[in-house]
User: Fold Lysine--tRNA ligase from Parafilimonas terrae.
Amino acid sequence: MSAQLSEQEIIRRNKLEKLEALGINPYPAPLYPVTHYSTDIKNAFTEETKEQFADVCIAGRIMSINDKGKVFFIKIQDSKGIIQLYVRKDDVCPGENKTLFDEVIKHLIDLGDIIGVTGFVFVTRTGEISVHAKSFTLLSKSLKPLPVVKRDDEGNVYDEVTDPEFRYRQRYAHLIVQPEIKNTFVKRTKLINTIRHFLNERGAFEVETPVLQPIPGGAAARPFVTHHNALDIPLYMRIANELYLKRLIVGGFDWVYEFSRDFRNEGMDRTHNPEFTILEWYTAYKDYFWMMETTEQLFEQIALALHGTTEVKVGDNIISFKAPFKRISIYDAIKEYTGFDVSEMNEEQLYEVCKQLHLEVDKSMGKGKLVDTIFGEKAEGNFIQPTFIIDYPVEMSPLTKKHRSKPGLVERFELMVNGKELANAYTELNDPVDQRERFEEQSRLMERGDDEAMYIDEDFLRALEYGMPPTSGIGIGIDRLCMLMTNQPSIQDVLFFPQMRPERKPDEA
Assistant:
């Protein structure tokens, strides 16, 4: 173990032993009675309010140490910000025993240690609001040195940690040295709370559905497989919660929603993580036209809640979430950006178009997947402003009701923003006979080698046979929505702990 430690880590462990030899517990158990926080103190302290700060207890992580002999200026960081401590020898060690100052504070504390002090708030000669310490307690000894992040005189980062291996794998350390990244995650929670409020005030009911499922249904995706020992059966981590939410519509709930943690055993890139959060809701007696209007209202409200305006800066673009959004059929979108009218083409013709467009396709791909490939590769990225892509071919949408007036199409839309899909919605298929035929077609695609085709879910078909009212449903990718609303380039930047490749051990490097 010691052979793998850096010189600094060895020094800190030696300090740990010296603390214990002095009878000081470097990891004490008792509650520490924090009463105040850094930013609150600095925002509220004035000459008129100083009596309110005559007795404070504050705790945090040491971020800088300035040794002035009998006085230390120490800056600590708590959950709200940074504040300076004024630690004078005779104040924290009023008696004859000066060990706490001469040994512990002067020689055994380090950057990264967590400490607590009691005292009073005052303003230093240089005008900095600080806490004059009357007592000093070590609350946690840090055995690993923090990375150095350089800042200007105003506290702005000019040499941030950019190594993704550190940023994403050691998020806990990244949050310490660059606490401003917390703002992204604060906005994520605010975004989710805004959605909850929007849905709850309209009468929607939040529910929970199984993560482990006997059949991976509700989407075209490759699942993770596990095994239940007691039942001796395979189980799948859910790729979607759609079919369970529809079962609840059958059971008599008119509007249900769930923030679902879903899992897909597929690639990783800047917009995909194998586990992700999606919001799905289903509303009885509605259709996809109503859903488009409701989605516009929701996105407009999210932008206002997070930014105070419907215009959001994303990269070099200004995205306007002011309703209404543009609407265009998937066939018209493909024609606009490829020149091909594929609306009447069969599978072989679509295959040839893909070849002409130099797209990677194979014979296992059916008509729906070929159309999806053309749109995804040649059209999708062009839709920067919020746009509903509507009226998909039936082969692409095995859970969607056939279009009321356009043969061969279904009542479906996807919301594209900044060149990426953010939402997918249908007028839901509630005809059990039609649904069985769609599942059977998916089964035939699976036999041809499509490992993302859907399984036949007999229990879901049974539920439909009891009768499901006309329904509209939607899925909204929360992680991508957070990327968009916080102007982050990668999904890893909006997940506290994104999936990473296994960490190499030192002897494997």
